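DATA SHEET
Item: assembly model
Revision: 1
Owner: S.N.
Input lines:
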Amino acid sequence: MGATKSAFFTDKQNNLANLAKALGHPARIAIMEYLVKVNACVCGDIVNELPLAQPTISQHLKELKQAGLIKGTIEGNSVCYCIDEKAIDRLQEYFKNISIRLQKNNNCC
Amino acid sequence: MGATKSAFFTDKQNNLANLAKALGHPARIAIMEYLVKVNACVCGDIVNELPLAQPTISQHLKELKQAGLIKGTIEGNSVCYCIDEKAIDRLQEYFKNISIRLQKNNNCC
DNA sequence: TTATAATATCGTAATATTGCGATATAAAGA
DNA sequence: TCTTTATATCGCAATATTACGATATTATAA
């Protein structure tokens, strides 16, 4: 054993876990925050922004993309990345919902 | 190599990555959703709710607790768990902020 | 005191992630 | 064409996660 038992959970649960997992690394949080900061499609800069080697960043970008958190567009020589708002909105909604439900009836010890 | 280079990132980035990482597993999402559903402190039930062995769930609960997502209170024989609202609020705020900043000026390709 | 019950920890095997050097790929420029 | 630039992929070592049986711990019940 050792592999995650994804099959035992709902698609929604697995999907959300995948989004969260993709954000579960400081380098990927830093990439997201950089994309928010510059507020635009960014080509190339990301490698210069972080203290990690190019292949490592390429891998992190791939994971963010696979989770649906960022989009990448080929622009001639390079690739431009930007945040996919839909994913952010989905996360925001999810936590807002939990927050509301907790406030309604919070009989915690 | 192989270890995450946490030292190269800010405390905020590491902290957020830790929260996200804790939610990056369907079993832990399922635990959180169960706690929201019952809307109360829950003792014991969790093991019966999920298709995982008791030690595995105990471990997942520990990770959620260490990340600050849930609180556990010893109640005689058993332990009662509930969601820590502060963590949820922090996540909600974080994504709301990103969402707002993206909507303001989204020049994405 | 001796069960019983609820939970945690240990130990370990299977698997996944992280990081990067080396190398491939693919477009732009000389 | 040949070189440069930007990015991706391969392959591998180090480390981390996942899962669970066995066992420890701790509190209640008999």
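QC remark: Chain A has a mean pLDDT of 92.
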